[in-house]
Specification:
The complex is a heterodimer of chains A (194) and B (370). With 194 residues, chain A is of the alpha/beta class. Chain A has two domains: 94 residues, no CATH class; 76 residues, no CATH class. Chain A has six helices and seven strands; from the N terminus they run E-E-H-H-E-E-E-H-H-H-H-E-E. In chain A, the strands form two sheets. In chain A, strands 2-1-3-5-4 form a five-stranded mixed beta sheet. Chain A has a two-stranded antiparallel ribbon with strand order 6-7. In chain A, a hairpin with a 2-residue loop joins strand 4 and strand 5. In chain A, helix 2 crosses helix 4. Chain B is mainly alpha-helical and 370 residues long. In chain B, the strands form three sheets. In chain B, strands 5-7-6 form a three-stranded mixed beta sheet, with no helix packed on it. Chain B has a two-stranded antiparallel ribbon with strand order 1-2. In chain B, helix 1 runs antiparallel to helix 13. Chain B is globular and about 60 Å long. The chains are: A alpha/beta (194), B mainly alpha (370). Chains A and B meet through strand 1, strand 2, helix 2, strand 4 and helix 5 of A and helix 10, strand 6 and strand 8 of B.
């Protein structure tokens, strides 16, 4: 484990295939400037893991330290207003994410790394707002609350009435509780096969 | 040490649970999980039989259910969720487990079903459907609609296929597939699922597969899982579904089984508390209540985490589906209590599974020097 990471893995895409279908030439999905930005963010995140109060969360901290090397980074576009997304160990960062301020970009990467560690939306939002409060974090959006209600957290519990977020062993996280108050009751109805 | 009265109460609980399932069987099968495709009969029956074939279910009931399943196989293929739904890998895996060793499924037909299941596999795992499975026609999806979610590999289905012996866990190919599955453990300590809320379904199946192969999890991963279980255990000893802080029988049963598979690492008190929580939720009729434990992502959804909202009871894409009558909760609770009773002899002297990693093709990654 090395934190900050000395190497990272970048997704490539094939730009030339041979007659047998194999790829003979591929390019990185991230530009050198984007790669540099990821390294800078990872540098800040490693410092944050040490400075942010994450008592009793050794498995999460170990994972975050490892993730910086184990994640496959992909640069590309995503639908709607999504700035970043994680699928398995692949984190996709959009031009919009790279266009953010340095502190916001670091918080975005941190948020996605919590997902890559198996964290739910509640975990990612909670730790982002705990560790980057006033320094790059953004409050949960209305789209996040149904996920909070349905999935809960792997590392945290949430009280939708008060907005309080605590770790499973009771440590209160330093989030803006007003931003975590559940704005609406659970929804139902609608939907078809797809 | 558990006293004889404790053991007697566990045996009684399982007997009452099995009796409840026995009463719920109608015309040779069980039903549950209503969706737009109808209520499942085949898949649900296979799941129940696969778990209870070693328990005290009446032999006649078991025989009826197996005959029902054998007759439900699609010609030259595998099994489906039920009704007119095309066959899929998960239903086929559970039916193969339910019919294992049964004369109801002759070797030639078993081979056809195994070949069908194998046709859903890649080096990444097992997909639930293939593009040519007929599912597109069944759901009336136009060619422009993506089925990428339903046709990609799913860890929960991959684990079920391995337990069904496709590929065999006694083969190098099977151990490699299992090793790749083990490598998908998240930093939270669990294995995520595609079709299930919460990670404990897949996690339990992974532990079963490792045990079936004659191994233990690598120590570091086993310790990570044990810590995760302890972290998520509620004050009453049970485990909740989603954000709920109330114990859910389905989830608690799976967690209890996980604890039991990891008994060689300790955790006796936690394990016992999970058992007590599960027993406390047994209904008067011997069964356990079901909840919206299953989910159906829309067919294009590859990662269910990206679904912005789930509905309940509408039974279509991006919805949670109810375990009606608690058929699965009761099945898993009976199974978990039985496994718990056997923990004293479980996993003695098994080696840890390690090493079978191979680079996966089509992942062209570059490592950059900082």
């Amino acid at each position: 484990m090395s934190c900050p990471a000395q190497t990272i893995r970048i997704r490539t895409r094939c730009v030339e295939t041979a007659w047998h279908g194999g790829c003979v030439s591929s390019v990185r999905t991230c530009s050198q400037a984007q790669i540099d930005a990821i390294f800078v963010a990872l540098d800040g995140i490693c410092a944050k893991i040490d400075s942010c109060d994450l008592r009793g969360l050794n498995d999460l901290k170990d994972c975050l330290r490892n993730t910086s090397e184990n994640v496959v980074w992909k640069c590309g576009t995503l639908g709607d207003s999504i700035v970043a997304q994680t699928s398995g160990n692949e984190i996709t960062l959009t031009p919009s994410a790279f266009g953010s301020t340095t502190s916001r970009f670091e918080a975005i990467v941190f948020h996605e790394m919590v997902h890559a560690c198996g964290g739910t939306e509640l975990d990612s939002e909670a730790f982002e707002n705990h560790c980057y409060r006033g320094a790059g974090a953004t409050a949960p959006t209305s789209d996040d609350f149904p996920k909070f209600r349905d999935d809960g957290g792997r590392w945290v519990n949430w009280n939708g009435s008060t907005g309080s977020v605590t770790t499973k062993d009771g440590q209160t996280l330093n989030v803006n509780t007003a931003a975590f108050v559940d704005p609406s009751p659970p929804s139902g109805g609608g939907g078809g096969w797809f | 040490m558990a006293g004889s009265s404790d053991k007697l109460s566990w045996v009684r609980a399982v007997r009452r649970g099995v009796a409840c399932l026995d009463r719920a069987q109608q015309e040779g099968h069980w039903r549950g999980f209503p969706t737009l495709a109808g209520i499942s009969n085949v898949w649900v029956t296979a799941f129940v039989v696969a778990h209870l074939r070693q328990l005290a279910l009446r032999i006649s009931r078991l025989a009826q259910a197996r005959a029902y399943l054998a007759a439900a196989r699609w010609p030259g293929s595998g099994w489906s969720y039920g009704g007119d739904v095309p066959p899929d890998a998960d239903s086929t895996a559970w039916c193969l487990m339910a019919l294992r060793g049964s004369r109801q499924l002759p070797p030639s037909k078993s081979r056809e079903a195994r070949d069908f299941l194998a046709s859903h596999q890649s080096e990444h795992g097992t997909a639930t459907y293939t593009e040519d499975s007929g599912i597109r026609r069944y759901i009336a999806a136009s060619p422009s609609v993506s089925l990428a979610g339903w046709t990609t590999h799913h860890p929960d289905v991959t684990a079920a296929a391995l337990l069904a012996g496709v590929p065999s866990l006694r083969s190098r190919q099977g151990l490699m597939a299992l090793s790749r599955l083990i490598a998908q453990q998240t930093g939270a300590g669990f294995w995520d699922a595609y079709w299930w809320r919460g990670p404990l379904y897949t996690t339990t199946l992974v532990l079963r597969a490792v045990g079936s192969a004659g191994y233990r999890l690598p120590r570091q991963q086993a310790a990570g899982l044990l810590a995760a279980l302890e972290r998520e255990q509620l004050a009453d000893g049970g485990f909740g579904l989603g954000a709920s802080l109330e114990s859910d029988p389905f989830t608690t049963a799976l967690a209890l089984e996980c604890y039991s598979h990891l008994a060689y690492l300790g955790g006796k008190e936690r394990r016992r508390a999970a058992l007590q929580a599960l027993l406390a939720h047994q209904r008067e009729d011997g069964g356990w209540n079901g909840d919206y434990v299953m989910r159906i992502p829309a067919p294009d959804i590859v990662d269910p985490r990206h679904v912005s909202g789930w509905s309940r009871g509408t039974d279509g894409g991006n919805s949670y589906v109810l375990d009606t009558g608690g058929v699965f909760a009761t099945t898993l609770a009976c199974h978990a209590v039985t496994v718990y009773q056997g923990t004293a002899v479980a996993l003695e002297d098994k080696p840890e599974l390690e090493g079978f990693h191979e680079p996966i093709a089509n992942e062209a990654l570059v490592t950059l020097n900082y």
